[in-house]
Amino acid sequence: MTDVVQQPVHPARARMSLSQSNLERIINIVSPLGLLLAWELAARFGWIDVRFFPAPSKIFVTLMNLVESGALWRHLSASMQRLFWGFIFGGVPALLLGIGMGLNRTLRAVFDPIVSATYPIPKSAILPLMLLIFGLGEASKIVMVAVGIFYPILINTVAGVLEINKIYFDVSHNFGARGWQVFRTVAFPGALPLIMTGVKLGVGMGLILISLAEMVGAKSGLGYMMWNAWEILSVETMYVGLLVIAALGIVFTLILTEIERLIVPWKIAR
Amino acid sequence: MNGQALKSAPAKADDVKIRLRGLSKTFETRKGPFVAIDNLTLDIPAGCFFMIVGPSGCGKTTLLRILAGLDKHTSGTLEIAKPADSSRPGNSMVFQGDSLFPWMTVWENASYGLRMRNRPQKEIKDVVGHYLMRTGLSKFTDLYPHQLSGGMRQRVSIARAFANDPDILLMDEPFSALDEQNKVLLQEELLRIWEETRKTVMFITHSVDEAVTLGDRIMVMTAHPGRAKAMVDVPFPRPRSVLELRAQPEYGEFVYNIWGYLREEVHRARSQDEGSST
Fold this sequence. Notes:
Oligomer: heterodimer
CATH topology of chain B: Rossmann fold
Number of helices of chain B: 9
Helix content of chain A: over 70%
Number of helices of chain A: 10
Distance between the termini of chain B: 42 Å
CATH class of chain B: Alpha Beta
Radius of gyration of chain B: 19 Å
Number of domains of chain A: 1
CATH architecture of chain B: 3-Layer(aba) Sandwich
Order of helices and strands of chain A: HHHHHHHHHH
Mean pLDDT of chain B: 87
Strand content of chain B: 15-25%
Shape of chain A: globular
Shape of chain B: globular
Number of domains of chain B: 1
Number of strands of chain B: 10
CATH superfamily of chain B: P-loop containing nucleotide triphosphate hydrolases
Strand order of the largest sheet of chain B: 6-7-8-4-9-10
């Protein structure tokens, strides 16, 4: 019984793939820094119009001023709170409905046409309607984010459940799993890789929509900060806003990729 | 809930565990009805290691899925004697090919049935630990299926079914994807583990060798439609050793006889396939 003929993946191979993924993470950080350097040089040597494209060092000074005055933190935290609640109110229903639609043909038949019809509507186009319904307060911004996050997570979750090999459902039924147990042990973990893809797309969409929503009828947030900068012709502040949003995009992607590595360890790294 | 007529039977040593009467299964296809199983009548005694041999497409897997409650038969009756202890599951299946959950470790896969039935932690630990030890997997409990070889994955699959302690074990060509050496090793292991409990087993294979090596009784099935062509009792005593058994001259003769039943079936199925593919 102990003479196992084949061994599991050799540890050396696992180490090699680890350093490979480390290298990829370093490249992920280095490539945007290279772009910044080129920009700085172009501004210093007058190759680009600094009225529209101020040097990154100038933008950095403005950034520092905004940090010191506490304004950036105020706007950032306002946007993050809206993003967070939008993520909860959009993502959780999308996840539950998505798994339900993946498991149940009737549910799929009911919601598929509705999703297909409403998904292509540009989310930015419903902003006036949302402002009308939810007013100028927090609710309209949160709803905008929630709507933006809802679709990518819903669509990817449905696809994730449908992609699960039918044999796993047979196994779970044969071994006595019922209802919630099937959901917990097969549908959810099986769909998790695609759910994570949906979350990443959804967070990106959320960032787009929160900046947009805050430009109209808000008195705080990164979007408001940038819109206000346009009104007072402070180009550097606009760039600070763009940079912060870009940085958020990178940070969220890195965090979500780490989370993915932790909760989907069985998916072989590609 | 799966449409099977479950009837409890008196507890006798020569009890009939599975009783089929005129069982048929017809699939509706675009080309019209397709008879997968035609009028199958069969008694399988408790504790019997029952083998079904037949060419591919003869409805073997369909029959197993009906017994497992994953499919429903179209006519006839199916009676499965309930286990004496009603807390035990009726059957557990070792599926063909990869059926381990990729998102669970070896331990989580092997303990799946017990966990779904909410058995106490200590029982899970003891039982799963025992069968992982018996299948030589004790050192690999934290690995995921993609980190294992095909042979090891199938061992986990067997451990998962045995650990669930079912009344009946259903095995659907569990070794067909393995190389010859691994096949013999796992057959040996299966026989040894089975000797501990002597559960009723229904085992499907397309290999006559495997059927004779493992089984007490062999049913040869025909294809299109799936019918019982012959029923043969295997005379070799237990406990058996795969290699020693195969070295006996009587073994070769026995296998040859069963091949006789099967040969014309394989030819018939092949000529039908060629006829229908034009």
